[in-house]
Amino acid sequence: MSDQLAHRLRELRDRNHWTVAAMAQRTGIPKRTLDKYMLRNGASLPGREALRALSHGLGVSLDWLVFGSEGTSKTVGLIVNRACGQAVRRMAELIIQENDAGYPKLIAGEQIFNLTPEAWSLSLGEFAQAEAEKQAAQGVTLGELVTWREAQNDRSSELFLDMVEELIPDLSEAERKTLKM
């Protein structure tokens, strides 16, 4: 792990055109110690507080620093998925609520509730970002996200089957089983 961490620190240094001294200033970790963390062979492994200082000072997630992209991509992807889903659901509920309240012109030209698609996307993006930041700050785990995703997949299958049964009420049991596969 220390060799991989050292590689990521060197990669970060090179990508940002930083000197080790600049990294030391950003993190509060002495240059000499950082040099030891970035050795190509036999690099020292930082402790918990040093990892925290590296993550914070260099502007990278602790997950990426310790595990690399393999450790963060699935978690980040699931957080984005969940946050976007909540943003879209919030906006869909607003549209349904306003429609049920008899909003005079739900859609007028290229606008929905007097908002352009660009304005809707900006609003959805801001909501999704806030939701993703909230989930990350609460320390949502990969296990929790995987469980959530499995539940969403199950729910999606249920909704699909309900829709098919509503559209084709005379499905045989064999046809229903085929749809469930």
Overall morphology: elongated
Instruction: Kindly report the spatial arrangement of strands forming the biggest sheet.
Output: 1-2
Q: Nearest-angstrom radius of gyration?
A: 24 Å
Please report the total strand number as a whole number.
Answer: 2
Sequence of secondary-structure elements: HHHHHHEEHHH
Distance between the termini: 41 Å
- Average pLDDT over all residues: 85
Q: What is the count of structural domains? A: 2
Largest sheet: 2 strands, antiparallel
Task: Give the amount of beta strand, in percent.
Answer: under 5%
Going by helix content, strand content and strand pairing, the class is: mainly alpha
Low-confidence stretches: none
List the quaternary state of the chains. Answer: single chain
**Percent helix range:** over 70%
Number of helices: 9
Identify the notable features of this structure and list them briefly.
73% helix; 2 domains; elongated; 434 Repressor (Amino-terminal Domain); 9 helices; mainly alpha; 181 residues
